[in-house]
Automatic annotation (TrEMBL):
A Pfam family recorded for this sequence: Lipase_GDSL_3
Protein name as annotated: GDSL-like Lipase/Acylhydrolase family protein
Entry-linked InterPro entries: SGNH_hydro, SGNH_hydro_sf
Record's keyword terms, sorted: Hydrolase
Length: 103
């Protein structure tokens, strides 16, 4: 973070969790990997907070692609609808961060 902030002062950084893909309900190994990855990301974010960094943000992925199973081709890889829902879910935060960076 020090390097990034020194090169681009005021940069806003967004961390986004791994999406809990429908496949993870059946592939327990993959589900465990997603859970462990998200936990590691949460821990890293907490460490950054403790160090006093302020220009980073965290977005949970729950519900980000919907829950009807139509957002992925094979339970893991996004369809057009999956990418659309992901973009719609991320957009409000990105818009907010762009406004914040413009100040």
């Amino acid at each position: 973070m020090d390097i990034i902030e020194s090169k681009i002062p005021g940069v806003q950084i967004l961390f986004i969790e791994h999406v809990p893909f429908p496949l993870t309900e059946f592939d327990l190994k993959k589900g465990k990997w997603v859970d462990e990855s998200n936990e590691a990301l949460r821990e890293a974010v907490q460490k950054l907070k403790k160090k006093g960094y302020k220009n980073f943000h965290y977005l949970k992925a729950d519900g980000l692609i919907g829950e009807d199973g139509e957002s992925t081709v094979d339970g893991e890889h996004f369809t057009d609808l999956g990418f659309y829902r992901f973009a719609e879910g991320v957009y409000p935060m990105v818009k907010k961060l762009i406004k914040r960076a413009e100040r």
